[in-house]
Amino acid sequence: MQQKKTVEDYLKTIYILSQNKDVHGADIARAIGISRPTVCVSLKALVAEGSGGT
Questions:
Q1: What is the pLDDT of residues 2-54, one digit of tens each?
Q2: What angle do CA 23, 52, 42 make, to 5 degrees?
Q3: Which of 3, 25, 47, 48 could pair covalently with 39 via S-S, beta carbons 3.0-4.6 A apart?
Q4: Three-class SS state of 31
Q5: CA 32, CA 23: separation in Å to the nearest integer?
Q6: Confidence (pTM)
Q7: At a CB cut-off of 8 Å and minimum separation 6, what does 15 contact?
Q8: In degrees rounded to 5, what are phi and psi of residue 4?
Q9: Rg for the chain (alpha carbons), in Å?
Q10: Helices in 1-54 by DSSP H: which ranges?
């Protein structure tokens, strides 16, 4: 069973990757070992959560 990635996992990965270049969903997916569609859905949820869901 694959472990679910947490918000902290995403934020840490984005921060680390952003030190060297612009970060894309494919970069995040490759770094934490999940699919690009999963990253897309997760990032949309993070944006919605951060903006109060609107």
A1: 567 788 889 999 999 999 899 999 999 999 999 999 999 999 988 898 876 55
A2: 40
A3: 25
A4: helix
A5: 13
A6: 0.77
A7: none
A8: -75, 135
A9: 11
A10: 7-18, 25-32, 36-50
